[in-house]
């Protein structure tokens, strides 16, 4: 298939690009390199060094003989988007090209506005380019489980049957976003659903959980192909933060009570889910929702596991509970359905001690690159 990967230089986009190229798909990247610029803005970095995008693409070609198309530009520029779609004629569009950090969106008014304009307008331009240029193409859009929030009922996969005053209908599952970033994803879902109803576009909205692990089989082939490892308080995940803290001998900082529970997925399963969605496209006019995660963990459970595995490497550390900068429930019910991707053939990688050990070893080997004052989460929701 011809697959266009929007945001192909990013944490999820880069391993997805290589995975799909390795499996014989014709792939091309669209990126404006904003993620690298945000590191500069925040004074942060990837724990492991990552190569410039041109070097990444050239290295892959040298190793495999496979060419990856590269289009540098911004989804806010509709003329650019339409030109790429007209030239490449994608059969599937994988959309990662959004500001993906909840803390970044909560820094201040400027960052909240930027996040929503960047994400919502970019996706609208993609939908219009599909309508105008490739109306039969299939959009595979990365959403987030954070759209749902933490309701006190089971979370379905995108839709729920409502029985109200004697009448029934199947409607989008209620959304309770916890940040301006998550709210931007809700807006995207609404616009995709509308585009299906009025234009007959086909789309799959992947409500992904928190991604862990860093490298894939493809990125591990050469250091110049390495994927980024975010550990900072704005873009880093709790698991990466804990591993970095353990490598430095610092306490693992759990926000609040630590009962915050979320869905998690290995990066190797992220890329497989994308291919499964591409090979099994939605029908014309359909906007499917798949909950893309493989298991659920609380923040406290992750800290406990990191502490245990770290001790086998001689990294002795403690666990500290610190004030939670977010406004969220710290103890709550959480049961989300996630069967549809498994039904399509996903065979999950579950979180093992070996995976945690690999993250710890990478943090230990590159601990000189850790900017210690960037680890703590400083952005306050209030």
Question: What descriptors fit this protein?
Answer:
7-stranded parallel beta sheet, globular, 382 residues, 3-stranded mixed beta sheet, alpha/beta, single chain, Rossmann fold, 14 strands, 12 helices
Structural features, described:
With 382 residues, the chain is an alpha/beta fold. The chain has a single domain (2-374), classed as Rossmann fold (3-Layer(aba) Sandwich). It has twelve helices and 14 strands. The protein has helices at 13-22, 34-42, 53-64, 78-88, 102-105, 109-133, 180-199, 238-248, 267-279, 299-312, 340-344, 353-365; strands at 2-6, 26-31, 69-72, 92-95, 138-144, 159-164, 167-172, 202-208, 210-212, 252-255, 261-266, 287-292, 295-298, 319-322. Strands 3-2-1-4-5-8-12 form a seven-stranded parallel β-sheet, with helices on both faces. Strands 9-11-13 form a three-stranded mixed β-sheet. Strands 6-7 form a two-stranded antiparallel sheet. Helix 6 runs parallel beside helix 7 (180-199) and helix 10 (299-312) packs across helix 12 (353-365). The chain is globular, with a radius of gyration of 20 Å. The termini are far apart. The mean pLDDT is 98.
List unreliable stretches of 5+ residues: none
CATH topology: Rossmann fold
Order of helices and strands: EHEHHEHEHHEEEHEEHEEHEEHEHH
Give the quaternary arrangement of the chains: single chain
Provide mean pLDDT, rounded: 98
Count of discrete domains: 1
- Profile the largest sheet: 7 strands, parallel
Which structural class do you get from the secondary structure elements?
alpha/beta
Strand content: 15-25%
Specify Rg, calculated over alpha carbons. 20 Å
Quantity of strands, as a count: 14
Termini separation comes to 46 Å
User: How much helicity do the residues have?
Assistant: 25-40%
The dominant shape is globular
């Amino acid at each position: 298939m011809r697959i266009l990967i929007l945001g192909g230089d990013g944490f999820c986009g880069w391993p997805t690009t290589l995975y799909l190229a390795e499996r014989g798909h014709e792939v091309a990247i669209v990126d404006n390199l904003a993620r690298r610029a945000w590191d500069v803005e925040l004074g942060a970095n990837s724990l492991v060094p990552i190569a410039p995008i041109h070097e990444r693409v050239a290295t892959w070609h040298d190793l495999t003989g496979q060419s990856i198309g590269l289009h540098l530009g911004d989804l806010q520029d509709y003329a650019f988007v339409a030109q790429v779609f007209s030239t490449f004629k994608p059969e599937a569009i994988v959309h990662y090209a959004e500001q993906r950090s909840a803390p970044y969106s909560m820094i201040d008014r400027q960052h909240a506005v930027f996040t929503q304009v960047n994400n919502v307008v970019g996706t609208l331009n993609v939908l219009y380019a599909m309508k105008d240029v490739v109306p039969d193409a299939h959009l595979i859009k990365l959403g987030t489980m954070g759209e749902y929030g933490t309701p006190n009922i089971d979370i379905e996969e995108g839709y729920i049957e409502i029985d109200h005053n004697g009448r029934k209908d199947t409607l989008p599952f209620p959304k309770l976003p916890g940040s301006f970033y998550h709210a931007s994803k809700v807006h995207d879902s609404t616009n995709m659903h509308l585009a299906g109803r009025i234009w007959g576009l086909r789309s799959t909205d992947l409500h992904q959980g928190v991604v862990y692990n860093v490298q894939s089989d493809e990125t591990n082939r050469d250091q110049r192909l390495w994927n980024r490892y975010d550990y900072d308080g704005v873009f880093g995940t709790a698991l990466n933060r804990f591993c970095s803290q353990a490598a430095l001998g610092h306490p693992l900082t759990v926000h609040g009570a630590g009962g915050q529970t979320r869905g998690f997925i290995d990066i190797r399963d992220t890329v497989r889910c994308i291919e499964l969605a591409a090979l099994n496209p939605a029908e014309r006019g359909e906007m499917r929702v798949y909950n893309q995660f493989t298991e659920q963990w609380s923040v406290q459970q992750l800290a406990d596991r990191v502490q245990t595995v770290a001790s086998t490497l001689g990294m002795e550390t403690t666990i500290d509970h610190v004030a939670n900068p977010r406004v969220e429930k710290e103890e709550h019910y959480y049961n989300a359905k996630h069967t549809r991707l498994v039904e399509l053939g996903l065979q999950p990688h579950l979180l093992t001690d070996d995976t945690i050990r690999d993250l710890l070893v990478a943090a230990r080997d590159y601990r000189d690159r850790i900017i210690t004052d960037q680890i703590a989460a400083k952005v306050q929701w209030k």
